[in-house]
Specification:
The protein is of the alpha/beta class. The chain contains eight helices and 16 strands. Helix content is about 20%, strand content about 30%. The relative contact order is 0.11.
């Protein structure tokens, strides 16, 4: 089996500051690992790399001119030719994360994802449905987003809008604002959960399923062994496994074109009595264990009770993640 290669991924639109961020990282001696580095550039902006300032030797810069070059065979070849012990990727903001996931060789393991955004254009992008969808695609995988040129969004209303944008994609992504003088401010807007995770039965509000789904997905150990109750729709899927179904909700990540069904597999020996898309009120035990739908450990529910119901008045057909 090929040696595992750690991948450090930088995502964001063109001119969002990715190159400058990576340049500064490579000038920092603390980023030295003793390994040769493959720097994979998937789009070229106005700023170019100054390799003479890199704090460590052995870096190979490879530019992918076209998306067709993003494939496992080509990436494996580049890693072999550079004798790389790690990979840093400046990813094209117009390409989906799934495209990269499918293109990476099996031994490439993503260690860290950092997003950058231009404070002057971030809100414009966020308010455009197509660009917002691309932003959410990157934010969902990111551990940190840095809004540079932050003077443009240095007010309460803009910060709140950006905070909600990030939280729509992830509750675990940290948010930082970098100013022209080099100073950095971190987002400190609280994100209290709208339910009590320490209650004997965690009651999920009819509009809060998306928030619980994201939090449970991000921190499954926090819910392991606990009991939850929530409003759901029935989804029958062979992927759920025998005597199982998926009690979930339709969720909107960006706009109506992006609505999809989300939920966790649930063990229930009477699942054949349920009809597709029927509304139910389910009480279930949360388990964090292996399931084939994940290929590893993940959230698996075990039904305690399943009660048929109607969609309550005022409840939307879909939920959001914030």
């Amino acid at each position: 089996m090929a040696k595992e290669l750690p991948v450090y991924l930088f995502v964001g639109f063109l001119e969002s500051g990715k190159t400058s961020f990576i340049q500064e990282t490579f000038e920092d001696p603390q980023f030295e690992s003793g390994d040769k580095t493959l720097l994979l550039v998937c789009e070229e902006g106005e700023v170019e790399y100054d390799e003479s300032k890199f704090a460590f030797p052995g870096t190979t810069v490879a530019v992918l001119e076209d998306k067709s070059e993003l494939n496992p065979e080509n990436l494996a070849r580049l890693a072999k030719e550079s004798d790389a012990g790690r990979v840093v990727i400046e990813y094209n903001g117009m390409w989906l994360m799934n495209d990269l996931s499918e293109a990476m060789p099996e031994n490439w393991i993503v260690y860290q994802v950092i997003a950058t955004a231009d404070g002057k254009t971030a809100l414009t992008h966020a308010r455009d449905s197509a660009m917002r969808s691309l932003m959410l695609d990157k934010l969902a995988a990111s551990e940190l987003i840095v809004f540079n040129r932050a003077e443009a969004v240095n007010n309460e209303a803009d910060r709140m809008e950006l905070h909600q944008l990030v939280r729509q994609a992830s509750r675990r992504c940290d948010i930082a604002y970098e100013f022209a003088d080099g100073s950095v401010a971190y987002d400190d807007i609280p994100d209290p959960l709208p339910f009590d995770v320490d209650a004997p039965i965690i009651e999920i509000g009819d509009s809060d399923f998306g928030i619980w789904y994201m939090d449970c997905q991000d921190e499954p150990a926090k819910y392991d062994g606990k009991t939850v109750r929530y409003l759901a729709q029935v989804c029958h899927s062979d992927l759920a496994g025998p005597n199982s179904f998926v009690p979930g909700r339709f969720a909107m990540t960006c706009c109506v074109q992006d609505i999809e069904f989300v939920g966790f597999p649930c063990e229930y020996d009477k699942q054949n009595t349920l009809k597709q898309r029927d509304w139910i009120r389910i009480t279930a035990k949360v388990q964090h264990k292996y399931h084939k739908i994940y290929g590893e450990k993940g959230v698996v529910l075990k039904a305690i009770s399943v009660e048929p119901t109607e969609k309550p008045a005022g409840v939307e057909d879909y939920v959001t993640f914030y």
